Amino acid sequence: MGLNVIMMGPPGAGKGTQADRFARERGLPKISTGDMLREGIKEQNPVAVEAKKLMDRGELVDDGTIIAIVRDRLAKPDTRPGFVLDGFPRTVGQAAALDGLMDERGEGPLVVIDVVVPDQELVRRLGSRRICGHCGTNADVGKLVCVKCGGELVVRADDDSQVVLERLKIYERATRPVLEYYRARSTFRAVNGAQAPEQVARDVDRMIDDAAASGGRRIAGERRVSAPVAE
Ligand code: AP5
After folding, report:
1. Phi, psi of 219 (to 5 degrees)
2. How far apart are the C-alpha atoms of 20 and 16, rounded to whole Å?
3. C-alpha dist (Å) from residue 64 to 37, 85, 89
4. Chain centroid offset of residue 154 CA
5. How does pLDDT run across 126-176, given as a tens digit for each residue?
6. Which of the residues are catalytic?
7. Quick check: CB of 224 below 6 Å from ligand 1?
8. The whole model's pTM is what?
9. CA angle in degrees (0–180, nearest 5) for 52-17-145
10. CA-to-CA dists, residue 223 to 180, 181, 185, angstroms
Protein backbone atom coordinates (compact mmCIF):
# COMPACT_ATOMS: atom_id res chain seq x y z
CA MET A 1 0.00 0.00 0.00
CA GLY A 2 1.40 3.41 -0.98
CA LEU A 3 2.15 6.34 1.30
CA ASN A 4 -0.31 8.95 0.01
CA VAL A 5 0.06 12.40 1.53
CA ILE A 6 -1.86 15.64 1.07
CA MET A 7 -0.09 18.82 2.21
CA MET A 8 -2.76 21.43 2.88
CA GLY A 9 -2.67 25.03 4.08
CA PRO A 10 -3.28 28.59 2.96
CA PRO A 11 -1.11 30.42 0.40
CA GLY A 12 2.36 30.93 1.89
CA ALA A 13 1.95 28.33 4.66
CA GLY A 14 5.00 26.45 3.42
CA LYS A 15 3.17 23.42 2.03
CA GLY A 16 5.27 23.50 -1.17
CA THR A 17 8.49 23.74 0.88
CA GLN A 18 7.53 20.75 3.06
CA ALA A 19 6.03 18.73 0.19
CA ASP A 20 9.23 19.14 -1.87
CA ARG A 21 11.46 18.09 0.98
CA PHE A 22 9.36 15.18 2.18
CA ALA A 23 8.87 13.81 -1.35
CA ARG A 24 12.60 14.07 -2.11
CA GLU A 25 13.61 12.39 1.16
CA ARG A 26 11.11 9.52 0.77
CA GLY A 27 11.64 9.07 -2.99
CA LEU A 28 8.01 9.88 -3.81
CA PRO A 29 6.69 12.10 -6.62
CA LYS A 30 5.50 15.54 -5.52
CA ILE A 31 2.36 16.52 -7.38
CA SER A 32 1.75 20.28 -7.20
CA THR A 33 -1.20 21.52 -9.25
CA GLY A 34 0.19 25.09 -9.07
CA ASP A 35 3.59 23.95 -10.43
CA MET A 36 1.93 21.88 -13.16
CA LEU A 37 -0.16 24.86 -14.25
CA ARG A 38 2.88 27.18 -14.25
CA GLU A 39 4.89 24.63 -16.30
CA GLY A 40 1.95 24.36 -18.72
CA ILE A 41 1.92 28.14 -19.11
CA LYS A 42 5.65 28.13 -19.95
CA GLU A 43 5.02 25.44 -22.57
CA GLN A 44 2.05 27.43 -23.94
CA ASN A 45 -0.37 24.60 -23.21
CA PRO A 46 -3.80 26.12 -24.13
CA VAL A 47 -5.58 24.86 -20.98
CA ALA A 48 -2.86 26.31 -18.73
CA VAL A 49 -2.72 29.58 -20.69
CA GLU A 50 -6.48 29.95 -20.16
CA ALA A 51 -6.05 29.11 -16.45
CA LYS A 52 -3.40 31.86 -16.10
CA LYS A 53 -6.10 34.56 -16.29
CA LEU A 54 -7.67 33.13 -13.11
CA MET A 55 -4.34 32.47 -11.39
CA ASP A 56 -3.17 36.05 -11.93
CA ARG A 57 -6.32 37.27 -10.17
CA GLY A 58 -5.83 34.80 -7.31
CA GLU A 59 -8.94 32.83 -8.28
CA LEU A 60 -9.26 29.05 -8.46
CA VAL A 61 -9.16 27.15 -11.72
CA ASP A 62 -12.36 25.14 -12.31
CA ASP A 63 -12.68 21.72 -10.69
CA GLY A 64 -13.11 19.87 -14.01
CA THR A 65 -9.78 21.10 -15.38
CA ILE A 66 -7.87 20.46 -12.16
CA ILE A 67 -9.35 17.01 -11.50
CA ALA A 68 -8.48 15.93 -15.06
CA ILE A 69 -4.87 17.08 -14.57
CA VAL A 70 -4.55 15.18 -11.28
CA ARG A 71 -6.28 12.06 -12.64
CA ASP A 72 -3.78 11.91 -15.54
CA ARG A 73 -0.84 12.46 -13.22
CA LEU A 74 -1.95 9.80 -10.72
CA ALA A 75 -2.29 7.31 -13.58
CA LYS A 76 1.51 7.37 -14.06
CA PRO A 77 3.37 4.37 -12.61
CA ASP A 78 5.75 6.44 -10.47
CA THR A 79 2.83 7.14 -8.10
CA ARG A 80 2.42 3.43 -7.22
CA PRO A 81 4.64 3.61 -4.08
CA GLY A 82 2.74 6.76 -3.06
CA PHE A 83 2.72 10.49 -3.71
CA VAL A 84 2.71 13.90 -2.04
CA LEU A 85 -0.03 16.26 -3.19
CA ASP A 86 0.59 20.01 -2.82
CA GLY A 87 -2.23 22.48 -3.52
CA PHE A 88 -4.82 19.79 -4.26
CA PRO A 89 -7.61 19.28 -3.24
CA ARG A 90 -8.74 22.88 -2.76
CA THR A 91 -12.51 22.42 -2.94
CA VAL A 92 -14.84 19.81 -1.47
CA GLY A 93 -15.61 18.71 -5.04
CA GLN A 94 -11.90 18.03 -5.64
CA ALA A 95 -11.64 16.14 -2.34
CA ALA A 96 -14.61 13.94 -3.25
CA ALA A 97 -13.10 13.29 -6.70
CA LEU A 98 -9.81 12.30 -5.08
CA ASP A 99 -11.61 9.82 -2.80
CA GLY A 100 -13.16 8.34 -5.94
CA LEU A 101 -9.73 8.03 -7.59
CA MET A 102 -8.35 6.36 -4.46
CA ASP A 103 -11.21 3.89 -4.44
CA GLU A 104 -10.55 3.08 -8.13
CA ARG A 105 -6.89 2.46 -7.25
CA GLY A 106 -7.93 0.30 -4.28
CA GLU A 107 -5.65 2.55 -2.24
CA GLY A 108 -5.58 4.20 1.11
CA PRO A 109 -5.24 5.85 3.53
CA LEU A 110 -4.79 9.50 2.59
CA VAL A 111 -2.61 11.20 5.20
CA VAL A 112 -3.70 14.85 5.44
CA ILE A 113 -1.35 17.45 6.94
CA ASP A 114 -2.77 20.93 7.54
CA VAL A 115 0.04 23.51 7.81
CA VAL A 116 -1.32 26.24 10.12
CA VAL A 117 0.14 29.78 9.95
CA PRO A 118 -1.45 33.12 11.05
CA ASP A 119 -2.60 35.42 8.21
CA GLN A 120 -0.17 38.24 8.99
CA GLU A 121 2.78 35.85 8.67
CA LEU A 122 1.38 34.55 5.36
CA VAL A 123 1.17 38.10 4.02
CA ARG A 124 4.73 38.80 5.21
CA ARG A 125 6.14 35.64 3.59
CA LEU A 126 4.43 36.12 0.24
CA GLY A 127 5.35 39.83 0.20
CA SER A 128 9.03 38.97 0.48
CA ARG A 129 9.10 35.77 -1.61
CA ARG A 130 11.23 35.69 -4.75
CA ILE A 131 11.24 32.82 -7.20
CA CYS A 132 13.52 31.87 -10.06
CA GLY A 133 12.20 33.37 -13.29
CA HIS A 134 13.64 30.38 -15.17
CA CYS A 135 12.79 27.22 -13.15
CA GLY A 136 10.23 28.64 -10.68
CA THR A 137 12.03 27.44 -7.52
CA ASN A 138 11.50 29.49 -4.34
CA ALA A 139 14.65 31.53 -3.74
CA ASP A 140 16.65 31.07 -0.55
CA VAL A 141 16.72 34.12 1.73
CA GLY A 142 19.70 36.38 0.96
CA LYS A 143 20.51 34.81 -2.44
CA LEU A 144 20.72 37.00 -5.53
CA VAL A 145 20.26 34.24 -8.12
CA CYS A 146 18.62 30.80 -8.17
CA VAL A 147 20.75 28.20 -6.34
CA LYS A 148 19.41 25.48 -8.65
CA CYS A 149 19.97 26.97 -12.11
CA GLY A 150 21.50 30.43 -11.63
CA GLY A 151 18.36 32.09 -13.05
CA GLU A 152 17.27 35.64 -12.26
CA LEU A 153 14.96 36.07 -9.23
CA VAL A 154 11.52 37.62 -9.76
CA VAL A 155 8.26 38.24 -7.85
CA ARG A 156 5.68 35.50 -8.55
CA ALA A 157 2.81 36.98 -10.59
CA ASP A 158 0.19 36.20 -7.91
CA ASP A 159 2.28 37.52 -4.97
CA ASP A 160 1.13 41.09 -5.67
CA SER A 161 -0.30 42.35 -2.33
CA GLN A 162 -3.89 42.77 -3.59
CA VAL A 163 -3.85 39.32 -5.20
CA VAL A 164 -2.50 37.78 -1.97
CA LEU A 165 -5.51 39.18 -0.07
CA GLU A 166 -7.83 37.73 -2.71
CA ARG A 167 -6.09 34.32 -2.46
CA LEU A 168 -6.54 34.35 1.33
CA LYS A 169 -10.27 35.21 0.96
CA ILE A 170 -10.76 32.42 -1.54
CA TYR A 171 -8.88 30.01 0.73
CA GLU A 172 -11.34 30.78 3.56
CA ARG A 173 -14.36 30.40 1.31
CA ALA A 174 -13.44 27.42 -0.88
CA THR A 175 -10.65 25.50 0.85
CA ARG A 176 -11.33 25.75 4.58
CA PRO A 177 -14.40 23.48 4.14
CA VAL A 178 -12.02 20.82 2.77
CA LEU A 179 -10.36 20.70 6.20
CA GLU A 180 -13.76 19.94 7.70
CA TYR A 181 -14.20 17.21 5.08
CA TYR A 182 -11.01 15.52 6.32
CA ARG A 183 -10.86 16.52 9.99
CA ALA A 184 -12.73 13.52 11.41
CA ARG A 185 -10.40 10.99 9.78
CA SER A 186 -7.79 9.34 11.98
CA THR A 187 -5.12 10.25 9.40
CA PHE A 188 -5.68 14.04 9.70
CA ARG A 189 -2.99 16.08 11.49
CA ALA A 190 -2.41 19.84 11.99
CA VAL A 191 1.14 21.17 12.25
CA ASN A 192 2.31 24.55 13.52
CA GLY A 193 3.77 26.03 10.32
CA ALA A 194 4.89 29.27 11.98
CA GLN A 195 8.00 27.55 13.39
CA ALA A 196 11.39 27.42 11.67
CA PRO A 197 11.28 25.21 8.54
CA GLU A 198 13.52 22.56 10.15
CA GLN A 199 11.16 22.21 13.14
CA VAL A 200 8.12 22.08 10.86
CA ALA A 201 9.92 19.33 8.92
CA ARG A 202 10.54 17.27 12.06
CA ASP A 203 6.90 17.61 13.15
CA VAL A 204 5.59 16.81 9.66
CA ASP A 205 7.71 13.65 9.42
CA ARG A 206 6.59 12.43 12.82
CA MET A 207 2.93 13.15 12.06
CA ILE A 208 2.98 11.47 8.65
CA ASP A 209 4.63 8.33 10.00
CA ASP A 210 2.25 8.20 12.95
CA ALA A 211 -0.85 8.84 10.81
CA ALA A 212 0.18 6.28 8.19
CA ALA A 213 0.73 3.68 10.90
CA SER A 214 -2.64 4.39 12.52
CA GLY A 215 -4.65 4.89 9.33
CA GLY A 216 -5.25 1.43 7.98
CA ARG A 217 -7.10 0.96 4.76
CA ARG A 218 -9.87 3.41 3.82
CA ILE A 219 -12.91 1.53 2.69
CA ALA A 220 -15.01 3.04 -0.13
CA GLY A 221 -17.58 5.45 1.29
CA GLU A 222 -16.14 5.29 4.82
CA ARG A 223 -15.81 8.55 6.75
CA ARG A 224 -13.42 8.21 9.64
CA VAL A 225 -14.83 9.33 12.96
CA SER A 226 -12.02 9.01 15.50
CA ALA A 227 -10.69 12.26 16.96
CA PRO A 228 -7.56 13.83 15.42
CA VAL A 229 -4.45 14.01 17.58
CA ALA A 230 -4.26 17.45 19.25
CA GLU A 231 -0.97 19.22 18.45
P1 AP5 B 1 -0.26 27.26 -5.73
O2 AP5 B 1 0.96 27.25 -6.55
O3 AP5 B 1 -0.71 25.99 -5.11
O4 AP5 B 1 -0.08 28.42 -4.68
P5 AP5 B 1 -0.59 28.62 -3.18
O6 AP5 B 1 -1.50 27.63 -2.59
O7 AP5 B 1 -1.09 30.01 -3.15
O8 AP5 B 1 0.68 28.32 -2.38
P9 AP5 B 1 2.06 29.04 -2.40
O10 AP5 B 1 2.95 28.36 -3.38
O11 AP5 B 1 1.96 30.52 -2.50
O12 AP5 B 1 2.47 28.76 -0.90
P13 AP5 B 1 2.98 27.43 -0.17
O14 AP5 B 1 2.06 27.11 0.96
O15 AP5 B 1 3.33 26.34 -1.12
O16 AP5 B 1 4.27 28.05 0.51
P17 AP5 B 1 5.80 27.94 0.06
O18 AP5 B 1 6.39 26.64 0.50
O19 AP5 B 1 5.93 28.32 -1.38
O20 AP5 B 1 -1.49 27.80 -6.59
C21 AP5 B 1 -1.37 28.96 -7.39
C22 AP5 B 1 -2.67 29.17 -8.18
O23 AP5 B 1 -2.90 28.05 -9.08
C24 AP5 B 1 -3.97 29.22 -7.34
O25 AP5 B 1 -4.20 30.52 -6.82
C26 AP5 B 1 -5.02 28.81 -8.39
O27 AP5 B 1 -5.31 29.86 -9.27
C28 AP5 B 1 -4.28 27.72 -9.17
N29 AP5 B 1 -4.48 26.38 -8.58
C30 AP5 B 1 -3.50 25.56 -8.10
N31 AP5 B 1 -4.03 24.42 -7.61
C32 AP5 B 1 -5.38 24.54 -7.77
C33 AP5 B 1 -6.48 23.70 -7.44
N34 AP5 B 1 -6.29 22.51 -6.83
N35 AP5 B 1 -7.73 24.13 -7.74
C36 AP5 B 1 -7.94 25.30 -8.36
N37 AP5 B 1 -6.93 26.15 -8.69
C38 AP5 B 1 -5.68 25.77 -8.41
O39 AP5 B 1 6.41 29.08 1.01
C40 AP5 B 1 6.05 30.45 0.85
C41 AP5 B 1 7.24 31.32 1.27
O42 AP5 B 1 7.48 31.16 2.67
C43 AP5 B 1 8.56 30.95 0.57
O44 AP5 B 1 9.31 32.11 0.33
C45 AP5 B 1 9.25 30.02 1.59
O46 AP5 B 1 10.66 30.04 1.46
C47 AP5 B 1 8.79 30.65 2.91
N48 AP5 B 1 8.66 29.66 3.99
C49 AP5 B 1 8.22 28.36 3.90
N50 AP5 B 1 8.20 27.78 5.11
C51 AP5 B 1 8.62 28.75 6.00
C52 AP5 B 1 8.80 28.76 7.42
N53 AP5 B 1 8.55 27.68 8.18
N54 AP5 B 1 9.25 29.91 7.99
C55 AP5 B 1 9.49 31.02 7.24
N56 AP5 B 1 9.35 31.06 5.88
C57 AP5 B 1 8.91 29.93 5.28
Report:
1. -90, 145
2. 6
3. 14, 17, 12
4. 22
5. 999 999 999 989 998 788 999 999 999 999 999 999 999 999 999 999 999
6. 15, 90, 129, 156, 167
7. no
8. 0.93
9. 75
10. 12, 9, 7
